[in-house]
Write the structure tokens for this entry.
Amino acid sequence: MAGDTTKTDMQAQTIDQNGEEIVIKLDGKDAYGEQLQTSTQYPKEEKPFPPFDPATFGPQLFWLVISFGALYLLMSKIALPKIGEILEVRRDRIEGDLAEAERLRQKTEQAIENYETELATARAKSHEIAEKTRTEIKSELDAKHSEVEAELSKKLSIAEARIKETKLAALVNVDEIASETLVSVISKLSTKISIKDARDAVKSVVKG
Amino acid sequence: MGYATNPIKQFDIIEIFSFGSINGFDLVFTNSALMMLVSVAIISGWLILTTRGRGLVPSRLQLVSEITYGFIANMIRTSTGSEGMKFFPLVFSLFTFILVSNILGLYPYFFSVSSQLIVTVALALLVMGIVIFYGVWKNGFKFLKIFVPSGIPLVVLIIVVPIEVLSFLSRPLSLSLRLFGNMLAGAIVVKVFAGFVVSLTAMGLIGIIGAILPLAMTVALTGLEFLVAALQAFVFTILTCVYLNDAIHPGH
């Protein structure tokens, strides 16, 4: 027992001595100490290059199966069907919209066509109506015109007849006035003249 | 030290916690598992949340989901015909998983799932397993026609058939190694240059001036790695489609 303790004491002393030396060395050269540490670690790192270390294969395979399996399930059950659906909905929507647009375009064209034919018929109709009205008015006008003309000519002839009559009457009166004037002129002059002779004289003059 | 300058350190698998072990199989939850779950969460969250509105006129975010959907759907339709659309969820999951984990891996201090050999091998074997099982289930013995190109004389077939068999067998290998190698190499190269920046700036003023070039390289390589990340996801997916086409229509 006693011998053992002395031995350990001795060891401790030597270690102390060594330790002091090392401490001094470390104080003097920091880099040396580090180099010493790594060089002592090197022999321990005799295990193979990590990617080739068979000890890591098992756990890595295990976790690869779990993670890749999870990824596969998530992709095939959730993510990819979802994206596929989105794309399909969009494609359908675009196709539907295009078809709708085409339908509307055709509808518009139809409407334009209808409008144009309607416009043409309306124009024709209006033209017809205008023509009809014009001819109607013209015939009416013509009728009225001829009526008025007929009346006017009738009136004219009546007036002419009256003028003729009046003229005749006037002429007769003229004869009478002339005879009477003759009588009074002659009687004033000298000789008496009968009204009958005067009339004959006027008559012969007028006739002559 | 460590993460900043050691380009290999980024591939370390670190235990976060453990579910214990079943029959000696350790159900340890690591940074790798975390990044896988983060990728899945980002993809699912993005696709489900952005399409929540079911907008007839899509929002910008919804459009991203729709474009991805259309991109993969088109890829399958052009390479396998409409019959291949039953594999659409699988191909879509593969593409998004690889793309998102590739891009996440570019982020400093993030773990790159696709630079773990076992992950890319597992994905490639999944694809080849489906190709073989679906091919045999749908076509029976006619599936073997994929090894026999039509319209070739019998004498030549003796040479061609072994080549075809060999090329078929090498498919999972090339499929997995292409993705793994690209992502691994890219991550290492970026880290090497970034590590130069860290070590040089620690050396004082001259080091900082000297660090300009590697910093520029890091920036340029990061841009390139984004391209590679997207390209490798695309390549993996289109090859999956091509292989699925073989299963659906064997005999070229």
In short: Confidence is low (pLDDT under 50) at residues 1-44 of chain A. The helical segments of chain A are 2-28, 30-41, 57-189, 195-207.
